[in-house]
Structures are given as C-alpha cells and as structure tokens.
Amino acid sequence: MKSSKQVTILVCCVVVIGVLLFQFINHSGPFANNDNKTTENGPDKTSKVHVERVVDGDTFVAKDNDNNELKVRLIGMDTPETVKPNTPVQPYGKAASNYTKDHLTNKDVYLEYDKEPKDRYGRTLAYVWLDKKTMFNEVLVKKGLAREKYFAPNGKYRDVFKKAQADAQSKHLNIWSKNH
Hints:
By secondary structure, this protein is α+β, with helices and mostly antiparallel strands. It is built from four helices and seven strands, in the order αββββαββαβα. Its cofactor is Ca(2+). The chain crosses the membrane at residues 7-25.
C-alpha cells in the first residue's frame, strides 16, 4: 500500500514538472510574456540619452551619460525611407523625418530596451520615451508617419502599435491617406 502511494506521488510530481517545463519552453502559463502590454503605466526601465541629430524618421544619434555616441533605431515600427542608399525618397518619408527632427533634436529622451539590444548594423534598438507616459514610437504610428513592423524577438509593444496603426488607417492619416 505504501509503495503505491509513493508511485502515485512520484507520477504526479513528474507530470507537474513536465507541464511546467513545457510552459517554460513555450513561454506559456506562468512564463508567458505580457502580450497585453500598454504604454499607460510607462516604461519598466530606461536609460537617459541626449539626441544630437536625427538621421531619418526612425533613426537618430544620441549621447549617453558617459558621453558615448549611440546610433538608435526605434523598434516596433518603420517610417518611409529618406536616406537609404539606392532607394528613392518614399511618400511621407520627409514628413516623418521632419517630425522626428522637430520633436527629438537636442532633447533628452529615455530608451527602453527589449530582448535584442542591437541590430545587424550595430544600432541600439529601443522604444523612445519622451516622458513617463509618451512613447515616441507609438506617436509616429498614431500620426500615420510610420507603420507597425515587428522584428523578432522585439515585440513587447506589438499590440500597442497594431492598435495605433488601425486608428491611423481608419482616420486616413498621412501614409494611410486616400491620395497615397
């Protein structure tokens, strides 16, 4: 009798451990990523930088607190091209670039990182916060100056950008205008 109880307990433990291991590997259950992330509560953790110059709508050069220069690429979205070699300037590219220049140049901003900190070009990948409530990446998408674009594995705010894009599309803003 005692050994059958021990076998039952052992089987239950193995099943529980197996289920937890499966959930851990698949990022489900208690190990799930928070896919319902919003920008309402602000970023989790940031680092402050000073924007020196804007390259285009989704890329800028900044200096960190140690005076190191960083080339930063906004993630989760993509603006029309203006400076890509062998690529013509795309519609609303200048508008996106000018908007970013007007709102970021010579300003202090806060970078929030996701799973992958750099891209293949060595640029720092970040969500850019103007303050605790305003993410610049989201602002560009809401204004129709960028489209949601997911680059795995950085998808912390993917649902936020999808919603912002749907709103901009329904209002026919900029890149979503009927004339485009």
